[in-house]
Amino acid sequence: MPKYETYYGIFEKDTDKGEETGHLNGPFGLVPDEIEAGRVAKAMFGKLGVARPTSPSNMEQWGYGKGDLDREGNVKPPFEQVRIGTMENGRWVGLTHGEHPHSRSNTNYYTITKDGDTERFSGHRLMHEITFEDQNYLKESYYSGDEVRKSGTCTIKINGHVCEVFNYRDVTYALQQVQAKLTRIHDFGACQLWNPEDRQKLVGRKIYWYNTPAVITSFMEDQACVMLKIDESVKPDAEGRRCFPESPCQQNDKAEALAQERKYYENEDRMFDESGFEEIKDTIFSKNIWWWRG
User: Fold this and answer.
1) Which of 238, 237, 230 is nearest to 277 (CA)?
2) N or C, which end of the chain has less CB nearby within 10 Å?
3) What is the helix (H) or strand (E) element at residue 41, kind and residue range?
4) What letter would DSSP give residue 16?
């Protein structure tokens, strides 16, 4: 006797009396047999309720249906694009809501092509690509001597777009970090980093950098970094420049230099635009950035 992981509850009315016919459907967990499925269907939809098994032939009977309709009854365009194949070798198709659920997950996602062909969808909505690149480099030091050291770079891409890049010394440590970083990417509240249109909205966004008002001027696609410019509300210094304050690390270095009575070298790579506004680069997940400034 078949097990009904999901079933369709159907209500039917007498059309000879001019009454409408229709159906309702939904997941009700694992229903052990047809008798139990029929009982639950009647409890849900009345004495005319019957059960339909989720067999392949039954899926062909119900299928895509009317699709996702707007208030005027027109089929909505796909709400998302998904990849058939890999990012390197594949094609994009639309993802839409069909009228009827399908598959063991009981979703109603369907792919739809430009020609209107539909297929049931229970695949990856986001395509992930994670690469690890080990490398060795020569560390030169007058005091401790030269030494070849290890390093590496991990790049996380979603739908072909770089969402995070980080360095590591041990690949096993990097593997442990990837899970947490993926969660952070997916939960990022400022935008969906894999969505180009959403990322472009970051440009012009007002933020704080080390409690200093700033504005994002560009997004660096291949590095998952942003360029920041200090806000015009910051007062200029004696030279007429608007500068970001020194970071805590710079402040500590300066304090140590003064305590040891040695020269402190200012950052000579500071960038300013034509109006004297300082610009800096920082990673998208930098702890120095506070994203919600009014």
Assistant:
1) 230
2) C
3) helix 34-45
4) G
The residue type of 152 is: G
Q: Spell out the domain ranges in the chain.
A: 1-62, 64-125, 128-190, 202-290
Task: In whole angstroms, give the CA distance from residue 164 to residue 154.
Answer: 8
**242 burial via Cβ count (<10 Å: 0-12, 13-18, 19+):** buried
Residue pointed to by tokens 């058939």:
84
CB of 102 within 8 A of CB of 121?
A: no
- Under 8 Å between Cβ of 158 and 124: no
Q: Which residue has the tokens 């942003």?
A: 226
Token pair recorded at residue 96 = 């839409």
111 with 97: CB under 8 angstroms? no
pLDDT in tens, the chain (294 residues): 333 334 444 444 444 544 444 444 444 444 445 566 566 656 655 555 555 554 444 444 457 777 787 888 777 889 999 999 999 999 999 999 888 777 666 788 999 888 888 888 989 999 999 999 999 999 998 888 899 999 999 999 999 999 999 999 999 999 999 999 999 999 999 999 999 889 989 999 999 998 899 999 999 989 999 999 999 998 888 888 888 887 777 677 777 767 766 665 555 567 888 888 889 899 999 999 999 987
Return the SS3 of 136.
strand
Q: DSSP for 176-208?
A: HHHHHHHHHHHT-SS--TT-HHHHHTTTT-EEE
Q: Angle 173-177-178 (CA atoms, 0-180°, nearest 5)?
A: 120
Q: In what order do the strands lie in the sheet with 206-209?
A: 271-272, 278-283, 225-230, 212-220, 206-209, 289-290
